[in-house]
Design goal:
The strands form four sheets. This protein has a six-stranded mixed sheet with strand order 8-16-15-11-9-10. It has a five-stranded mixed sheet with strand order 5-6-7-2-14. Strands 1-4-3 form a three-stranded antiparallel sheet. Helix 3 packs across helix 5 and helix 8 packs across helix 9. It contains eleven helices and 16 strands. The longest helix is centred in the middle third of the chain and has 25 residues. It is α+β, with helices and mostly antiparallel strands.
Amino acid sequence: MPSITSQYLDRYRRLTAGDGTGALLPVTGAQRRFVLVRSLDPSGRPDLVPMFFAFPHGTVDPARLRAAARRLAARHTALRSRPTVVRGTPVLSVGEPDVPVNRPVPAPGERPADALRRALASWDAQGPPLRLFLVHDEEHREDILAVVLDHAVCDGRSLARIVEDLGAAYAEDATEVAREETEAERVAYRDAVLGQLAAEERADTPGAAAHWADRLRAVRARAEPPRPQQVPDGALPTGAARASLPAREDRVPFPALLDACRAAARALHGPGHVVPLGYPWGGRPAGAEPVVGCFLNTVVFPADTGQDPAPEATADAWWDDLDHADAPFDAVVTAVRATGSGWTGGLDGLLTVDDDNRRPPLRLGGVEGREVHVDGRPVRAPFAVSVTQGAEIRLRMVWDRAVLADDTARRAFDALTGALRRPHTP
């Protein structure tokens, strides 16, 4: 039987046969997941990737910023392409670069963060995938710039390139990007996606299906039913907790982060569950240009809360998983469901890991923006953990207050940080 990737490529080729415009581009397995998640959301809400930067008031020129953002989108095909479904086939529809700079105004009694949350909550999924929001913070005499992307066109590895290129475009004279440059990038992007799909097609094997079917056989989404009554009127929909730990010379090994998330899941659900945790993994296909896009696959770690295995056991299982990590997410879900599992692909936790040396600061007109957080935005899973490693280890956990009570979530965060404070020898 043809693999899911093979079936997708066949549908895409039939859809675009005879079309010489190149306006419809194929999507990676990672992009298919985001399109599917959006289609299952009753509100059609996309996953958003925002970055927030504080600048001294008046140093950002909105007109120059919009011109820079248009040049950025002209140079990166994904940033001017809208995820859509044509005759049942997910694709990217390439359009003209159009990046608005919105100016939300806080209502009386609102803080700038409130205005930004409100603006992001009203995101129109049919609009451009890259948008900018600039709001004035009168109290601190700053302007907060939000650079926000539809996750279907951008993964974590693209963020550094976007930040660097936006700053460079802001420093340029207001000239249009040559059509030849735009077309060359479109071809490079299409080639990169086709290369990624070829890699996914090779990885989507009976052996990979058997591995994931066995590995995730016991997985169930373990989140409690929503309890909206626990969220007071006017409260933010998500809670957040942060902590900093001393940096380690060799960084925290990824299996240690998985074990820490297992400890958090045990604090949330108690022993005796196998909780699905998702994390991004992968990269661009070999030989591809370093194009902006969404290529990182979501890999599922089955966190058995009834076990506390030795570090080497987690590491061994994780290395086995990486041998099959290129199998696309939808193929993994299909393989697990073929065993009779009721799991539909929902994730109870998300883990992302970043290196603070990988992302340059955003500089606009010689002024460096200070990256800040805006809490309270919706989270797609009951909880999500982000880890930034650098001069120190910065931990952040957010949770859905309609699913998890604050005190329960904070106990889970304490379990997470406690696990990372203990020595880990794989």
